[in-house]
Amino acid sequence: MFYFCTMKHAAPPPEMPIASDRRKGRGALSNDAGRFEGLSRMPFEDGWTPEEEMRIRTEVRIEKPRSLITYNRSPDLPFDRSINPYRGCEHGCIYCFARPTHAYLGLSPGLDFETRLVARPAAPEVLERELRAKSYKVAPLAMGTNTDPYQPIERDLKIVRNCLKVLADFKHPLAIVTKGTLVERDIDILQQMAQQGLVRVGVSLTTLDKDLSRRMEPRVPLPRRRLQMIERLAQAGIPVRLMASPMIPALSDPELEAILKAGQAAGATSASWIMLRLPREVSPLFQQWLEEHYPDRAGRVMARLREMHGGQAYSAQWGKRMRGEGHYAQIIAHRFKLAAKRLGLDEKQPTLRTDLFHPPLRKGDQMPLI
Length: 370
Fold this sequence. Notes:
With about 375 residues, this protein is of the alpha/beta class. The chain has 12 helices and 12 strands. Strand 11, helix 9 and strand 12 form a beta-alpha-beta unit. Helix 3 packs parallel to helix 5, helix 5 runs parallel beside helix 6 and helix 9 runs parallel beside helix 12. The protein is globular. The mean pLDDT is about 90.
């Protein structure tokens, strides 16, 4: 296969979809260059590439981070710091608002985001160094707010598990967001932290429809399996929040009450929701996906989104970007409020403890006299 390189226009249309047999099991249909690239690559099949090499496979690169903890001042977020052991996500959720971050690596927010991953095996050591800094002031850390920490490559690399060991040793509070059932592997550590009031887990459940799930989040465990994950975490005494996110107008939002009911039955004790967000490259990627999989509803979905964002597919305005505004957004918010109250999911989760934080002694450290 050859690639033709052409000058990229200021606002190029989405690249033509890549053949379905090459992208089987992937979310994005195309792989247009990121917004910082001056050239756009167009694949051209020359007939010489063996069929078994045509399929797009996952690549993993290794990165040694200088720092791991990322700080933010967003008024829309309930935390001010987070860690990300991976860049990109093999789950391939077409709606993922983190896709545009791949452009900073010179990669495409399309198929590159879910097939050209970056792993950070040194993350646990860097995290420990940052937590030991005299200037560090403890506050809950968030993990999984950008890309999922429990995506498939974690099974072999165990970066998240090693980070959990560090946080448990330091008695540091942590909030995890995931769709990956691999979190069950770490119940031994999470249970210990939960008993000390140091951890909670948010599980994202976008739909109960297995066909819709497989189309829009192709490598995520099916809804029934995620409900089982909630049950197992809850049985271990780990606080679980059901995240009905994102809600997609005319596609998944009719299921809102059913999703909350299923999560509550599985053991979730609280719930939250976020409307579909389409920042930067996510918008053309999602619309391209929508036209291929649900052409009969594409116009209706986008019309509702534009109603909520002042005529645009998305607005990044603080205080409004997570749920939109207008009548449709208000209806969804009211439905959620009523259902959550009826199911007992409207209670806030207990505040994570920060008073237990204490860097453990290292080999050769002086023990305290008192």
